[in-house]
Amino acid sequence: MHRRLLPLAAWGLLSVGIAVVPTVPSWAQLSELQEARRLQQQVVKLQEQGRYTEALPLLKRSLTIQEKVLGPEHLAVAESWFELAELYQNLGDFTAAELAYQRSLAIAEKALGPEHPALAEILDSLAGLYEAQQAEPLLRRSLAIREKALGPEHLQVSESLIRLAQLYKEQGNYAEAERLLRRSLAIREKALGPDNPLVTGILGELADLYKRQGNYTDAERLLRRSLAIGEKVLGPEDPLFVVAARHRLAELYKERRNYGAAESLYRENLAILEKTLGPEHLLVAINLDGLAELFKEQGNYTEAKRLLQRSLPIWEKALGPESRFLVVFLTNLAELYWAQGQPAQALPLYQRSADLEETFLTRNLIRGDESAKRDFLAALWPRTDAVVSLHLQALPQERQAVRLALTTLLQRKGRVLDALSAVYQSLRQRLGPQEQALFDQLVAVRSQMARLAAAKDSPPPVALLKQLTAQDQQLEAELSRRSREFAQAQAPVTLAAVQQAIPAQGALVELVVYRPFNPKAKSDDEAFGAARYGVYVLRAKGDPGWADLGPAGEIDALVERYRRALLDVRRGGGELQGAARALDARVMAPVRRLVGDATHLLIAPDGQLNLVPFGALVDEQGRYMLERYLITYLTSGRDLLRLGAPAVPSAPPLVVADPAYDRPGQGPAVQLAGLVRGQPRAAALGRLVFGPLPGTAQEAAQIAPLLPQARALTGVQATETAVKASPNARVLHLATHGFFLRAGGGGLDHPLLRSGLALAGFNLRQSGPDDGVLTALEVTGLDLRGTQLVVLSACETGLGDVAAGEGVYGLRRALVLAGAQAQVMSLWKVDDQATQELMVGFYRRLAQGVGRGEALRQAQLAMLQSSRKEPYYWAGFVVAGDWRGMR
Question: 588: which residues sit within 8 A by CB, 6+ positions away?
Fold first, then answer.
């Protein structure tokens, strides 16, 4: 688990103050400014005591006074915004901190110019909120400003070098981090002398770098030198530099399991801090936490628990009872109860921890691009694993434990997709001129990335793609920031809210891959066991049901066997029946015991189960699940809360079929061609060259009359440009080749560039302003908020990179971001004629008013009774999203 959230920088670094331009206020204004100064003095005292929650309203009042008296662009106001940002950061509200830092930077930059050294500290602090991709340019700019304005050997340059080195250290670029730290050390030693306390911080950073590389000898040497300097110059009881050096050394000994030496240093520190700063200072709590972890690793849970019980109130008093930083202490204390065989006592602590993290997620997940959001959420999954483990492994019959586990899954599974979807939809609803320009840039960058990735007969230009990816991330992060107000207004995800959205005869089947947590483990590396599958079932009324399904490795092997058997039509009955039955017995047999009389399964898969057509599994009576249940696919049960959103006005349906792959996408429409039987709707995916699919023209000819006012585009008119230029078509039907390249295919890293559709001009990469390759990444830029149904009548359109807790990164994810309510897509290379038959049957039932999910099910059941009864022909297509009738 994540043991510590505050860095050792809590002991302080030198900061650069921002110069304040003097003014001549009136007597009344002077009185107000004196009040602002008094408030700031109180803030300083409260911060010194670690009482950040109490300091926040006082600093806000002071800032309001300064803006009123001095004006909103005065440098004193910039400094107050900077102080407010630091306070928000200490309280864990990174979204508010980012806004405050940006406001401070804007004021200072306007007043002082873009190269004033005062800007460097703001840039450094703002970079601390970002992932490496966004942070590095800010830190490099800070370094360049200081080097130019102050000279390459100034002490503030040393500070910039440290921050940049810390970034590289976290990235694993140890050689560059060491080079920067040694340069920083040389600057400080030259300016201050080798025995100055300000040298000790760099020695500690270098020691941490060596420790990460396993070079414990050099790490200990540097830490001992750091401690000796502090004790010599400041005395052994200095509560900042000396305590920090001693703390680092204790951490090193603890990692090497030299527990006696570590305990001695911790206790020495504790005595000094209690004497010099008082027993309730934040640094005392940090030391108590380190000592508690030491005792936990030795199995002395009683003493560890006692220390944490003393530490927790200090943190609560300092940061307030709702601070996210309390999470680590609550979970550590919960683990100790659990390790002592008291999991019931751990439950309320995990509950409180989960509530704090949900508040933190709601405030902060809106920040950054998708990769930043994904990394942000990934940091919480160890605690998610622990909560699920607490229920399934320790408290299986405890009602509150099952409710906590399922609620946590509903709040976190698919959360990145949900957050991004909120960003995209809010922007489309509220686009102002600036947002429209940014969104247009994002679409243009993604189109350029797609064009480069799909260039004919040439490998993708990796360096240029990386540069464009960085631009894409910056634009997405900025758009996220601009949509913050809308996203924060989203209703919380609760068990009751999800339950209300489940139909009367429905059952939510929430599958999860989790790692069993061992609270007695001595290190994070040893804390989690091999992954397992679990399932939670929720009906419209009543408490959830659950089951542990067993090791993920065994179930994934059954998935692979099942998919191989499905795709080999020649094998037929025996092997396919056996594979389908074996997977059903492990996964769905336990589910059937939990769903009762439900006839509609809302399945939210996880892991490799995302690739399973559940309707083709075989039960104990030898029947396909399709015969018994309507099946709808979700990323998470939280999807149900989105399905009831009001739709925007829609355009007439659009049917695109039989593209002219070998002709440029332009010119007059061609006549619908006749049917060619039996050709798969995919070609050699690695080469990305496709043959014709005349059967799709017959499909379009039969489908279009069933859709009122539908437009049908075929041949050279079936272009990528036409699809992009048709927003909010009520139904969007694309009958063509689809592709999904496995990881590494074509040298591409971005998962949404490895999945897409082929349209007119594809083989030539010529189609008017486009190239005929519609990637999933480009699909994210479409506006499909009024689109009630997207049918991808093509191969492997439901595939992509499987990400635990986030579903599949491919076309379906892109369509959700574009706003489509429901998607029909395929899980393998489907047969041309069988697909035509299935699609026509599907649309005929839609035209009769049958719901989107039930219409596909009835069409598949009809095929099951025909000569094409093998699942290969009918089971490849699934419905995801809204299953109900179309408006």
Answer: 614, 617, 619, 625
